[in-house]
Write a structure and sequence with these properties.
By secondary structure, the chain is an alpha/beta fold. It is 34% helix and 19% strand. The chain has twelve helices and twelve strands. A five-stranded parallel β-sheet has the order 2-1-3-6-7, with helices on both faces.
């Protein structure tokens, strides 16, 4: 059995749809399928010009001599085709639309009955060939995928279309710093791929688990919008090197201290100045009735107990919640959506924390 995964994102391997597709492919391989892939962002594919040459003068052969020449045989031989695409204006990306249009040489021009509608007969493709859809969207509601799913059900009707995985609110999934928070979801996606490879369908248990991890409540959607808007505000270019820092005349915390002081001293010790070159900032942490702050002065980072007058960035959280996040026990992104902690100030620094404080 051969599977072909077609990746439609212009972001290549930095895309959320790639992360989902990659883990789904791992499940297919575990089920014993031979998996090939087409990365459209690395290919040159002209758009179809509607000349019908592939139906008349050169049946099955397009006038364009581009990467689609090598793609068509892969499509013909695949028992399962998986399309992985982000949602662009409620549809596939332009890259994938060109790819879909250019499949016309695989069809014959004649009109035949296909189920309850008229269609074209296919040339030399497996009779049992199935199609599966993977899509991600920046919006948090799953209803945004309705038109896309309808498109694929229409294109691959007659029992060829076997299902989909739809992930709303997925923009953080494209960021390196957020990958760890999706580990549990990725395991479920791999299991879904395994089940499709074995039985051609995702079990209700696995589907429900994926849905539970990717569905937002009305309250979470409000927080999602708030977080997204803060993030876009923070994307304004800033010269962090010009931030003025107060002179602190108390001794910084040490790792030989006990409890939370030692924890924040440890954070300061593992600070990575390459994460945000030239950074000057103050990160304030208000945890229950205790407050700490980190002063970052380019390559130097020091921890102090107390409150800084005008921090660049403030995290307000119950102590146990923040400790679970830093230990990896709790997803920082999910905890934020559930209002388990709050952030004030420069959201860009929140997005960079994994890089700033890791070895």
């Amino acid at each position: 059995m051969k599977a072909l995964i077609v990746y439609g994102s212009p972001r290549h391997k930095k895309s959320a749809s790639y992360h989902i597709g990659e883990n789904f492919a791992n499940g297919l391989r575990r089920a014993g399928l031979q998996v090939d892939e087409i990365m459209l962002s690395k290919q040159k594919i002209h758009h179809c010009i509607g000349c019908f040459t592939c139906w008349t003068k050169t049946p099955g052969v397009c006038i364009h001599k581009d990467d689609m020449v090598g793609n068509l045989p892969k499509l013909q031989k695949a028992n399962l085709i998986v399309f992985a695409t982000p949602l662009y204006v409620y549809n596939v990306t332009g890259l994938l639309k060109n790819f879909l249009d250019r499949q016309i040489p695989l069809l014959e021009p004649y009109l035949v009955e296909k189920g309850e509608a008229t269609g074209h007969p296919r040339r030399d493709t497996p009779e049992n060939q199935k199609v599966f859809l993977i899509s991600v969207a920046g919006f948090p509601e799953v209803s945004h995928f309705d038109a896309l799913v309808t498109l694929f059900k229409q294109m691959y009707r007659g029992g060829r279309y076997i299902g989909e995985i739809l992930i709303p609110g997925s923009e953080p999934m494209s960021m390196d710093d957020f990958q760890e928070s999706y580990n549990e979801l990725y395991k479920l996606i791999e299991q879904a791929g395994f089940e499709v490879g074995k039985k051609g369908i995702i079990s209700e248990e696995t589907r429900k688990a994926i849905t539970d991890k990717t569905t937002y409540t009305e309250e979470e959607i409000k927080v999602f919008r708030e977080m997204a808007n803060k993030y876009w505000d923070s994307m304004e270019l800033k010269d962090y090197s010009k931030i003025k820092l107060e002179t602190i005349d108390i001794e910084p915390l040490k790792v030989t201290d006990s409890g939370m002081p030692a924890f924040f001293a440890g954070m300061a010790e593992i600070y990575n100045p390459k994460a945000v070159p030239g950074l000057k900032a103050v990160m304030q942490f208000n945890l229950d009735d205790e407050s700490y702050y980190l002063i970052i002065n380019e390559a130097e980072c020091k921890a102090y107990k107390g409150s800084y007058s005008e921090p660049t960035f403030t995290i307000i959280s119950p102590k146990d919640v923040w400790m679970k996040i830093t230990s990896g026990e709790l997803s920082g992104a999910k905890a934020f959506m559930q209002r388990m902690y709050k952030v004030e100030g420069d959201m860009k620094l929140l997005m960079k924390m994994n890089q700033m404080f890791s070895r």
